[in-house]
Amino acid sequence: MQRRPYTWGWACLLGACLLGIGGVFQPARLQGEQNWPELRGPTGQGIALAEGLPIEWSSTHNVQWKSSIPGKGWSSPLYENRRIYMTTAVPLGEGDEGNQSLRALCLEADTGKILWNFEVFHQDGETAPTIQSKNSHASATPVLHERKLYVHFGHQGTACLNLDGKLLWRTRQIQYAPRHGNGGSPIVVDDLLIFSCDGESDPFVVALDRNTGQERWRTARNIEAENPFSFCTPLLIQVNGRPLVISPGSEMVGAYEPQTGKEIWRVRYPGGYSVVPRPVAGHGLVFVCSGFMPAGVFAIRPDGEGDVTETHVAWSEERGAPRSASLLLSGDELYMVSDGGVARCVDARTGAAHWTERLGGKFSASPLLAGGAVYFQNETGTAYVAKASTQQFELLATNTLDDIPDERTFASYAVGDGALFLRSEKHLFRIETLQKN
User: Fold this and answer.
1) pLDDT confidence of 435, banded at 50, 70, 90?
2) pLDDT digits over 252-280, tens only?
3) Which domains does the chain have, with CATH numbers?
4) Which of 95, 187, 389, 400 has its CA 20 to 30 A from that of 236?
5) pTM value > 0.90
6) C-alpha to C-alpha distance for 154 and 268, rounded to whole angstroms
7) Apex CA 35: angle with CA 32 and CA 39, to 5°?
């Protein structure tokens, strides 16, 4: 994988947040703090280096622009070189169950103007499986890499576009029966595009050639799960110089060799299913969630081989475990927010609790760390900004957007050019610190 030069700031960040005993870190494409190329940013773990992001905003304060987005999608926006990239599903008729135009969009970051809007796939409503009421037809976040945009609609297909909206390739060769629709996002590893396909039965992880869309390998989960469906996004880490793709699914998380798909190790969590939170890594540990039945957080030493359930789980905890929002690792602290709005900060090495606080509303978006603050975004547009601290929960601001009272906010933040980009059900907002007149 070709890597771009990175600044000392990035090196310090990775050293503080991602390196740890055992030599575990995520070898992210370090493209600089101004770009946000995949779900949860350059490291895939929700960490922004941008300075001066606002902690307070409202419909009339610190909102540079609000842009209407056609259709609906829970995929998160991406930012690169003053452009925003998104996916959406536009109904061709009434409601979520009819035909859908599955589309990729590009917006001008300075103004919110849509620069291009391209239909990638047409979804036939008569043959497409139904989605769960909380889901959308465009829930997987795309990936930017080397001036290409990789868009993914789960069982409906995967495609690659250039940054002018021209189709380079698309494929529907990866077939599986979903439950509740699509969700998990892909990642780029060298010349591969890797994602999970955890549907109604026979779940597997797959890699496509990112230059052609052709399948390169497919690895079965090989687990008898009562509910085999999940929607998780993998994370690339290295363990003592060896790259591993960490991909949670129902009742197990697996570590896979990226070039071959060989399973290196697994940890079982019996009963867990519908896993959504993306893993995070640091301190010689990988932190994963087990989804439903029951929800749990697991800290795993990733240097084993085979089934390491009994030997490599450093700690686990069910209290406050999220089912939807990903974890957030900052230094020695692991932050989380449950679907029901309980925020927690625990010691990453031991799981010992520092504080627990009930926030308002329900949560699906993943938290963000920026400027010493943790941003928690609930499903109805309210953002709670708290100080990143082990001492106690310290609320810095509570922010609402009153002009979208009926719009859900499930997408996670993007950051770029000193601004937050927040997607609601029908709009995209650019939120930044504005000078008062």
Assistant:
1) confident
2) 999 999 999 999 999 999 999 889 999 99
3) 8-431 (2.130.10.10)
4) 389
5) yes
6) 24
7) 115
pLDDT of residue 95: 65
- pLDDT at residue 97 tops 80: no
Strand pairing of 368-370 and 47-48? parallel
